Amino acid sequence: MDGRLFEIGRRSFDTPEFRGLEFIEVEARSVINRVPGGMPFDYTINPYRGCSHACVYCFARVTHTYLDMSAGRDFETKIVVKVNAPEVVRRELAAARWRGDPIAMGTATDPYQRAEGRYRLMPGILRALIDYRNPFSILTKGTLILRDLDLLREAAAVVGVSTAFSIATLDEELWRRTEPGTPNPRRRIEAVAELNAAGVPCGVLVAPVLPGISDRPGMLREVVRASLDAGATHVSPILLHLRPGVREEFLRWLEETYPDLVPRYQRTYRTPYAPAAHRRALGRMVGRMVRALGGVRPASVPRRWRPSELSEPAAATQLTLV
User: Which residues contact residue 85 at a Cβ distance below 8 angstroms, ignoring those fewer than 6 apart?
Assistant: First the structure.
């Protein structure tokens, strides 16, 4: 176990939503973490390690190997829970050395994954951030964030707050293959609309885009259109990256699911990131889609939105990435 974490117990719950999961309860010395340079944020809070969303591409999988667990099944089923996170966050925010820097949440594992339904760590964390007027952001795939809508609305009234949903595709078959433990992406679009309607700014990361799988312009346009109709404050794509430890897990899945694409990925991902030209091409294409569909609305007020609009079939045109 990480030297900053002290294990105090292990639990499993025999209910449908938690079946197959083991929760490793720990006490943490510190919860606000400083991150290395090169990131768009300097501090993070991650109340959990491991994630039941089980996204096949998740870059955080490698962090479980630091705890002598696997980046595969262990990452998805053995969830480390920092049970004292709210108290530690409050103590760290009160420290004289803390300068009120913005804090990002959801940067490693999702704070609104299934474990949060049981442990309810986020309300205490949000309350501490509100009380100390500390700006923060949340990136999630978990519609459980709506449980805390009143707290988020209160925070948005007194301090800088931003939220975002990760929504890579609205194709249900692809969603089930790649993100089997996440809420339906159409429900996530609804959550984007609910947050923005409540005055809590919420954008969408179209992420990660999988070359040859979820990069068809019609599929991307479907996500962009739905996001804009939900009032998204921004719609930004991120092309898949594969760091060591995650690469091996993803390629194993690719071999089983899309074997014809394995050679292409081996060529494209000689390094963790796809070539810069591919990333720029994706950004330009999605940017054109956003502009063509009317762009984001500064006031972040959801447009007239009908669930039926999400059911249009995606065009079959393929974005070519050699």
Answer: 28, 31, 45, 47, 121, 124, 125
